[in-house]
Specification:
By secondary structure, this protein is α+β, with helices and mostly antiparallel strands. It contains six helices and 19 strands. The structure holds zinc ion (ZN) (2 copies).
């Protein structure tokens, strides 16, 4: 059986009995729940959960699982003339969801922001025609189910297709990646960020963390590196990791503002109370 960790939702390689531990959950960036390490499998998940598709924007559909499972992130199906992408991934896959994605034109590739969302990526790849899964090589040690469909890309940028560029930001994970979609936001550009750049509950600002559940921030230098990584790209929208967590205007200014606010908060500089938020 290929067991799925209930904590992080990542499917592990074939084993006769559940793995002894989940390395992703034992890492400082995640946690093992109060009931200890628990496992499920796809069949079980299919019996208790359903995927929900929602329109997030033009040519952009979110896929999320109800009720919430594991971390609870969404995947995003992005449709462009240059090819369709499944951005980030979720643990539950079933015939209904695959049919829905195929009705949207399928995908030519899957790309994932960081290991917490590796989920059932190999199942999705196989169901969608053995499409490649683009992961940053710096996070290769966190792949729990190795597979030939996985393409480890290296360096700072990787173009999936014209107007679709993976950008390594680092921060939450060394290979933490966002996707730039030049044609997004009506041609003003969009960033799909997972939680590498986390959209705040206000949907006007963002934040950056080494660990979200354990409240471990990143350094000021890391924040500057994240901003510098996306600075060459134009974007007006940011689509975060959760359903509805989107910044839908002036996202680049929002990112700069949020970075300044964050650096002030973690250094000895005055808190930016007097500042007007974007
Ligand atoms: Zn786990
Ligand atoms: Zn994460």
């Amino acid at each position: 059986m290929k067991f799925i960790c209930v904590g992080c939702g990542v499917q592990h390689a074939e084993s006769a009995v559940p793995p002894g531990r989940c390395a992703i959950c034992e890492d400082q960036r995640q946690y093992v729940g109060p009931g200890g390490q628990r496992w499920t499998a796809l069949k079980e998940l299919q019996a208790t959960h359903k995927n929900q598709l929602d329109v997030e924007g033009p040519e952009l559909i979110s896929i999320s699982t109800e009720p919430k499972f594991a971390i609870g992130q969404r995947a995003l199906h992005l449709r462009t003339a240059a090819g369709n992408i499944l951005w980030d991934c979720i643990s539950l896959i079933d015939d209904r969801s695959v049919g829905a994605v195929q009705a949207l034109g399928g995908v030519s590739a899957i790309a994932i922001s960081h290991p917490h969302y590796y989920s059932s990526m190999v199942e999705w790849s196989r169901a969608l025609g053995d499409v490649p899964i683009y992961l940053h090589a710096a996070d290769g040690e966190w792949v729990m189910r190795p597979h030939p469909a996985i393409v480890f890309w290296q360096g700072d940028n990787h173009q999936l297709a014209p107007g679709l560029t993976l950008i390594r930001c680092g921060g939450h994970f060394p290979g933490g990646t966002v996707l730039h979609w030049a044609g997004g936001a009506g041609g003003k550009g969009a960033l799909l960020t997972g939680d590498v750049i986390q959209v705040g509950q206000d949907r006007k600002t963002v934040s950056f963390m080494y660990s979200y559940p354990n409240y471990i921030p990143v350094s000021a230098r890391t924040v500057r590196e994240i901003v510098a990584a996306v600075e060459p790209f134009e974007f007006d929208h940011i689509y975060g990791a959760w359903f509805g967590q989107n910044i839908l205007s002036n996202a680049k200014q929002a990112l700069r503002y949020s970075a300044d606010r964050y650096i002030a908060a973690i250094t000895d500089a005055d808190q930016p109370e007097a500042r007007v938020s974007p």
